[in-house]
Q: What sequence folds into this?
């Protein structure tokens, strides 16, 4: 290699290393209760408080014994979340910058012993076995040699990839399509992702989640992998893959212009999964309820008020 090539290569490496470290840099408050487990469950929260009386009791009941748990709030300190974490002996992280990629990077870096990461959003409703089943299924799929997953996710009722196979397994596909049209597998632009009425219908048909998941355990089809970008409300992944892709990207130029970076982690993770030939795998005998996508949130709050027993 020529001298110019060597200099260019060295400069490129320095730039990449600095960019990588920038993806971890922020000021934050961290209440540290970690036990140095090999698995950390990081919970992204702070902005959908009406759901907390339903979401957090489910999470507490579903936590596998011995894992570390860290609740994160990006761009704000939430005293109620900090109190909740104290009651459950969980860690709490509040970052200065409101960026979901950055807060996940910081949380993961603060748990250096964790080789496995479980990430859950504040609007995900888990059953007692959701987390355990997804962790076990990741290990099962990898050991089988069928795939080296980028991540494993449960079946999710409000999810553009999961909902069609879920409807088929529950015998509801024809009824859904008669009401809302073809159940197209997509990440956006479909009734399931845009319409509060469709989200409400799915919750009415899949609640209570505990009964639905028992049906799934007897109807699961062969391996299910995502053919398009997957909404990452709950995932299980290896720390090594997070490190291999250079962590989640922090788009500081957008943050400086006060532009939203919401979803940057999902877009990047799914793109890197494709680039590294590591498929997104869905555990069909595990179930989580997703409350709604953004446009559906207000309408779904009405359902929460009318039928809290669904959640």
A:
């Amino acid at each position: 290699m020529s001298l110019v090539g060597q200099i260019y290569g060295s400069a490129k490496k320095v730039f990449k290393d600095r960019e990588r470290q920038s993806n971890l840099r922020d000021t934050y408050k961290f209440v540290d209760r970690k036990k140095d487990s090999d698995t950390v469950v990081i919970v992204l929260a702070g902005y959908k408080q009406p759901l907390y009386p339903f979401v957090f009791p489910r999470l507490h009941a579903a936590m596998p014994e011995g894992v570390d748990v860290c609740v994160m709030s990006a761009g704000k300190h939430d005293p109620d979340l900090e109190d909740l974490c104290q009651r459950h002996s969980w860690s709490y992280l509040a970052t200065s910058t409101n960026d979901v990629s950055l807060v996940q990077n910081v949380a993961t870096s603060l748990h250096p012993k964790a080789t496995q990461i479980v990430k859950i959003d504040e609007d995900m409703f888990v059953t007692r076995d959701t987390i355990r089943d997804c962790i076990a299924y990741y290990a099962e799929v990898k050991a089988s040699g069928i795939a080296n997953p980028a991540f494993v996710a449960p079946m999710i009722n409000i999810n553009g990839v999961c909902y069609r196979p879920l409807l088929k397994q529950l015998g509801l596909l024809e009824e859904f399509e008669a009401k809302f049209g073809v159940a197209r597998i997509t990440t956006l632009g479909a009734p399931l992702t845009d319409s509060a009425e469709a989200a409400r219908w799915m919750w009415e048909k899949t609640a209570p989640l505990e009964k639905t998941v028992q049906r799934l355990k007897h109807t699961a089809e062969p391996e299910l992998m995502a053919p398009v970008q997957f909404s990452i409300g709950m995932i299980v992944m290896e720390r090594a893959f997070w490190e291999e892709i250079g962590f989640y990207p922090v788009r500081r130029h957008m943050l400086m212009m006060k532009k939203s970076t919401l979803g940057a982690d999902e877009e990047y993770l799914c793109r890197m999964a494709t680039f590294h030939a590591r498929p997104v795998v869905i555990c069909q005998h595990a179930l989580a309820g997703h409350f709604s996508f953004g446009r559906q949130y207000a309408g779904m709050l009405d359902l929460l008020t009318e039928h809290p027993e669904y959640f």
